[in-house]
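Technical annex, item 7. During the second reporting period the consortium partners agreed on a shared format for inverse folding records so that results from different sites could be compared directly. Each record opens with the tokenized structure and is followed by the designed sequence. A conforming record, contributed by the partner at site C, is shown below for reference.
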């Protein structure tokens, strides 16, 4: 009996080993991305409209999320820091007369630290750091196509519940609004995901005509925050509460004051799963969107310091 049991047991162990090996091999074959740093590049463009085709719904909900993130221009940010530094250096102090006489000479203006694009997130990268410039040029050359937004940036991609919505605007400006507005969200779970919350508006002059069926365009939260910054007593909570309470009340006044009104609005609201390092296309009858998300190895501060130090030479 022993002679018959041992081969059976051996076969069972072999089958168990094969099954275990296949289970362990599956994650390696379908390994999902993890939270970490990526370089993101996005192109949004408008395309010719087939006048015989779509009838666009007008019962749209246009809203910016609470968890938003500005995509900053490094040159504008550096200039802002220069102004803040200059204002801090020229601000009056309550020093004594002796101290003032001793420091009558103005302190030399110092330059703020440059923006570290290699490590900082949510900054627009220079044109030569983009990978889709030729694609954008080919799109722009197509009759009726117009590039509304083309930027690249780096960010730490996290889970959906923590990922911020990045403010997007582009195209021609009409008063306080742009042709393309909204936000997008890049997050990761088992896979990378891109959520779009974008709207494209065609405008007409406000000549006092009867209000049409299109909803009022929401104010960019960054503009709203800047406009409210003069009120030092308004905290973040009251800022958002005031927006909810006064949104409908101000809609009519905004309509009367606006130099331009939307003639048509189309919305691009989708959720797409992405593969890193691949170019993805999000289709829409009126818009098109290209997205490429590439893993980025963010350098440490120490490695940057070492690379910036001059090499020592022996005698």
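Designed sequence (site C submission):
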């Amino acid at each position: 009996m022993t002679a018959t049991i041992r081969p059976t047991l051996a076969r069972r162990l072999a089958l168990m080993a094969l099954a275990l090996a296949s289970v362990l091999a599956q994650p390696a074959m379908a390994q999902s991305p993890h939270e970490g740093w990526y370089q993101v590049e996005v192109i949004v463009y408008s395309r010719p409209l087939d006048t015989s085709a779509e009838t666009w719904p007008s019962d749209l909900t246009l809203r910016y999320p609470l968890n938003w993130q500005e995509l900053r221009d490094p040159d504008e940010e550096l200039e802002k820091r220069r102004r803040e530094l200059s204002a801090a250096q020229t601000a009056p102090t309550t020093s004594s007369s002796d101290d003032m006489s001793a420091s009558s000479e103005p302190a030399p203006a110092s330059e703020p630290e440059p923006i570290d694009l290699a490590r900082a997130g949510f900054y627009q990268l220079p044109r030569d750091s983009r990978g889709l410039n030729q694609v954008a040029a080919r799109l722009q050359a197509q009759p009726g196509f117009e590039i509304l937004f083309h930027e690249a940036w780096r960010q730490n991609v996290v889970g959906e519940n923590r990922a911020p919505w990045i403010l997007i605007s582009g195209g021609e400006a009409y008063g306080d609004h742009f042709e393309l507005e909204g936000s997008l969200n890049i997050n990761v779970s088992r896979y990378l995901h891109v959520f779009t919350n974008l709207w494209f508006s065609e405008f007409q002059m406000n000549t006092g005509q009867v209000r049409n069926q299109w909803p009022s365009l929401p104010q960019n939260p960054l503009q709203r925050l800047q406009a409210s910054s003069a009120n030092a007593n308004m905290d973040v909570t009251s800022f958002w509460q005031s927006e909810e309470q006064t949104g409908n009340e101000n809609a009519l006044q905004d309509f009367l004051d606006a130099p331009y009104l939307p003639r048509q609005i189309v919305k691009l609201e989708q959720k797409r799963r992405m593969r890193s390092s691949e170019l993805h296309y999000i289709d829409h009858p009126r818009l098109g969107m290209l997205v490429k998300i590439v893993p980025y190895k963010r350098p440490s501060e120490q490695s940057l310091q070492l690379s910036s130090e001059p090499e020592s030479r022996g005698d």
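Residues 2-29 form the longest helix (28 residues). The CA atoms of residues 140 and 146 lie 6 Å apart. All partners now use this format for quarterly exchanges.
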